[in-house]
Design brief:
The complex is a heterodimer of chains A (200) and B (627). By secondary structure, chain A is an alpha/beta fold. Chain A is 34% helix and 14% strand. Classes of the chains: A alpha/beta (200), B mainly alpha (627). Chain A: Keywords: Oxidoreductase.
Amino acid sequence: MAKILILFAHPALEKSRVHVTLINIIKGIPGITVHDLYEIYPDMNIDVDREQALLTQHDIIFFQYPLYWYSPPAIIKQWQDLVLEHGWAYGHTGKALSGKWTGNVLSTGSGKDAYLPGGHHGHTLAEFLVPFKQTARLCNMTFLPPFVIHGTHRMRREEVPFFCEHFGSILEGLRDDRYTPEMIAQAVYLNDLHDLGKAD
Amino acid sequence: MNEHSFFFTAMIYLAAAVVCVPVAKKLGLGAVLGYLLAGIFIGPYVMGFIGSEGQDIMHFAEFGVVMMLFLIGIELEPTLLWKMRAPIVGMGGLQVLVSTVAIAAIAWWAGQPWQAALALGMTLSLSSTAIVLQTLKEKGLMACAAGQSAFSVLLFQDIAVIPMLAIFPLLAPAGAVTGNGGHTLREELPGWAQTLMVFGAVVLIILAGRYLVRPLMRVIARTRVRELFTTFALLLVVGISVLMTVVGLSPALGAFLGGVVLANSEYRHELESDIEPFKGLLLGLFFIAVGASIDFEMLMSSPLLMVGLVVALMVVKFLILFGLGKLFRLSTDQNLLFASSLSQVGEFAFVLLSFTRQTGILPAQTTSVMTAVVAVSMALTPLVILAYEKLLQPRFTVKEEKTPGREMDTIPEKNPVILAGFGKGGSVVGRFLLANNVPTTILDMDSDRIDLLHNVGIQAYYGDASRYDLLMAAGAAEAKVIIIATDTIEQTIAVVKEVRKNFPNLQMLVRAESLPDTFDLMELGILHIYRDYLDTSLRMGADALHILGYRAYHAQRAASTFRQHDEKAVKELSALRADKKTYLSAFRERIEEIAKLMQTDKDKTWDAESQSWDETSLIAEEGERVK
């Protein structure tokens, strides 16, 4: 059984419609740790030792956040800058994260079509996530396809739980090792994986 | 001396100093030269305001040298003194020995009997502690290698005077009057008792400094009578001098030792600032007296001989010092400064010369010529150092930059931060700075608090930070920042005014207790004001929001936004306040100010967060596009 860590970053959760539901569902799943960065470090003063210990204890690390200006919120960058130390996360002696899996769980205001080749934003979502992909590579981690909730601007409230539960079941599948690396490699988004969470 | 003539003489001395010193400073000659010129000017050969009493005044004013050595001692930690033992004994010992032998040999070669030659050699081997240290200090050269070496040599010379005084009677021709027979208690005793007494006196000073003076100062500090502290400081130095004279030791040496013993004391800066003005006054007087005692008649009667003697003497001393500097690996520029600054003959020569005349070692003619030579060589010293600075130093500055390693081995007492007040606010700032390895000089007015700090190993100094001399002693001239966290607003304002007047180089960070204090400080032009409870209260407020269920980050931003708003509102109110001040009573004013602040809180749309990370307008726009 894999241990999953969600590094959650939302600067204004009180205004959120999607993530507030998503995080509450995830919190209810056994074997998953939700780590609410803005709540723990409102002054952005990240406790590096604590974060590194947390990473060591988990096998799959997700960043969960709303995408603003094609980037994660500021605290994620701060977290990366401070926690992923040379000699610990990467470099000759930096093997602490080696072999772990990592990925992104994010929401975008625009629909999926805006992030297709030739779409409104000019690049695919995978292209916007290149820094994460290369960071994973440098840390010797497997980079998972993102789980994306597109079109939150036009989403009706009653549609939200569907996405959230879908992601919940995928998380359960990952936790219970139901997805083979081949299945994952074929997916563009984690959303594409078959809903194996509730199987058996 | 009747009262009238005393005040008249005092007026002449003071006026001469007040006129000549600023002129000399303006001309770049330095204060020491200014005093010397003032002395020459009022002396018997120019204006004739003062006559032969110049010599008596000089003996009195020599006490300034004692005070100076006390101050030097107090700036020197015992461990540092121990580190300097090699240059003191090695360099100083060799200098006295080689100079004595060389000058004696020349005198002997010139036809003096060996006793007289030896007496001359010893007398002239000494240099002037007063002039050299004062000049080097004034030019800020004490900390460099040359300054430290010069200091070591001068210290050894002060020690060397003791055996010299013992040897001199032996050089006197048989049957001559012994000069100061029975003057001191020591000489009436047998040899072993003398030695015992000398050691006893030294031990007494060390023990008293450790176990008597400190508790006594604590008691005096607690009385909070300022002048009593000054009185005690003077008593301390005078007492040491008397003790030393009784046992036949040099008072200057004793005072130096006393200073070193008190160097680690928490009252160090206070003692320094109490003694400093007396020292300055007496040294000034001393320099004036030296200037006044230069015998121009003698100079004019045989100018060639006099000039020749002065030049020859200074050249010989210079060469020996330069050789020593090379031996002790001073870089060439430092060595030049070292050798040229010590090439004169010191004030102690006056004492020794009169002693040799009384005992008949030297004829009166010779001693008066030598007295004139000594005075001229002393007067020339500031000029020689000036010449070094202007002509020689510029050539070596490039070289010096290449080898900066050696020079730094000095007293790093001056800290970049001065913290005035270690009470409510100051203690946290102080701990924070010390935790971050920022060297900080802590000043406080509460002697009990200083003791307490001392017990936990924090060095703090007793004193009133609004005093110019205390700030000076704490290194305010070189520091970057002063944190003013004194206990009352009156103290705070006094410190602020003093710093603003005399230390514009310091950035002031000032703690304010209340809103009115903040306004007072704003009117004084302070930019960095820290109002008590503002930050802690907002942290409490933010925590309250968090407990009520607000996100931590939201609460934090709200507190931060509120602080910005508060600071802006206080600034605006401060401008308004200036007009109203005249007719509002202080209490009503205070209430009204808080009411006004609360009004601005209300007027402000507190939904300051509304725009951040809000997508309402974006969603609306997108909705329209779809339609």
